[in-house]
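Below is how a single chain appears once it has passed through the pipeline. First comes the sequence as given, then the structure the pipeline wrote out for it. We keep one example in the README because the format questions we get most often are answered faster by looking than by reading.
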Amino acid sequence: MHPTAIVEKGAKLGKGCVVGPGAILGSEVELGEGCTVAARAVLEGRVVMGKKNRIGVGAVIGGEPQDMAFQGAKSGVIVGDGNVFREYVTVHRGTKEGTDTVIGNGCFLMVGAHVAHNCRLADGVVLVNGVMLAGYVEVEEKAFLGGAVVVHQFVRVGKLAMVRGQTRIGMDLPPYCMAVATNAVCGLNLVGIRRSGVGLEGRKALERVYEEFFFGGKNRVQALEAIRSGKDNKVKEVKEFCDFIEKTKRGICHGLRAGDLREEEN
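Resulting structure:
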């Protein structure tokens, strides 16, 4: 521990933790084994982290939520194992009494990314520089959000979804899909799907389901019914796709053909 670091009484640090110069750890902070807190990082409020997390220079974890309704509730941030929080990342704690912002295992939050109150990030999520997640956003396993992406409050981003840099998302983005313009899907994240180990059967089924749902000429309810009763309804990835859509409260991003992309951007 650097002599200029401030670790308040009550903070708990696991074996092998390193705390850099000028870092501040509040009294309710708990770090698992092997965590590294770089210079001038601040961990405040109830922050509970697992093992081998890396907190970069100037990052702030557990700060008060940017919510006008916040009245000093006892809330927190829960973090799993093996996450990376690069320089000046901010993760705010929950806004209501007893609630938490939750980050899973193996996530990578790059420079300046912001995770607002009550967000939930599953394992393996990547937020590139300057991503902004508003309150209560949910990001599922291995989703990838490019630089400066903005996500509206309460939006869900599905498993292995990918969002192009500088894109705004205000509606739910289904699993395995790529968002390339505001609330617009343009294809599947095929590279990510292959790398994650989805087999040929799953990939082909997703391609058929994608076409049926977004371009099959049916409304969303009819499209889901057709998929649920179709030949691919037993495929795991298809079930995940349908289950996600059925739970939407903000609506689902619309589909775009590649040739329509330039017009959409304009």
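The CA atoms of residues 72 and 213 lie 44 Å apart.

See the next section for the split statistics.
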